[in-house]
């Protein structure tokens, strides 16, 4: 069974640009969540999508957004990039999401560098 | 608010030594779940174990073992006879209700270095 797949793995963007990251969950998983990992703040929850609806949201500004498609694949978008957005962005999937106590499986992440 | 504390920032051991990674959690929720993940340099968080709040039975899986104690709000992880391949950052995480929503909260991680 294929794991969580994230693309691209590495990317470099310039301040002010926007970026879109993609995530394909494990087959059969309907919940997709996104996390940001930085050396200073650690792992922080961005948002969770379930059946194409945002179910939970962390404390991030509106520049961070996401969506989920009918096949459960998800994208997250960051607009007007700032240097502080440089981070590892991790996507995770589970059958029903954290609200059900499911195990959450992570992808390898997308390393974003903003210059 | 829920919180996970991993007080050990970095641990260095020599191969074949046993090592215990500490995790202390805080939550007001009565039904919660605890996890351990391993993060190698590649970045992927690898799931190791999941425990629910009703199951305090300790678990052993090969060289890995976990000690869950609700009385002290701890969920410690022990690697027996450590190997170089165990070198990674280990995260403890808690899934519990927080301000009306269930979220997964991570500790700050413990970097384990196993020297040959």
Tell me what you see in this structure.
- The complex is a heterodimer of chains A (115) and B (116).
- Helix content of chain A is 0%, strand content 52%.
- Chain A is mainly beta.
- In chain A, strands 2, 4, 5, 6, 9, 10 and 11 form a seven-stranded mixed sheet that branches. A four-stranded antiparallel sheet of chain A has the order 1-3-8-7, with no helix packed on it.
- In chain A, a hairpin with a 5-residue loop joins strand 7 and strand 8.
- The mean pLDDT of chain A is 93.
- By secondary structure, chain B is mainly β.
- Chain B is 0% helix and 57% strand.
- Chain B has no helices and twelve strands.
- Chain B has strands at 3-5, 10-14, 19-21, 24-26, 33-39, 46-52, 59-61, 64-69, 74-79, 88-98, 101-106, 110-115.
- In chain B, the strands form three sheets. In chain B, strands 2, 5, 6, 10, 11 and 12 form a six-stranded mixed sheet that branches. A four-stranded antiparallel sheet of chain B has the order 3-9-8-7, with no helix packed on it.
- In chain B, a hairpin with a 2-residue loop joins strand 7 (59-61) and strand 8.
- Chain B starts with a strand and ends with a strand.
- The chains are: A mainly beta (115), B mainly beta (116).
What's the shape of chain B?
Answer: globular
DSSP helix count of chain B? 0
Rg of chain A (CA only)? 13 Å
Structural class of chain B: mainly beta
Shape of chain A: globular
How do the helices and strands follow one another from N- to C-terminus of chain B? EEEEEEEEEEEE
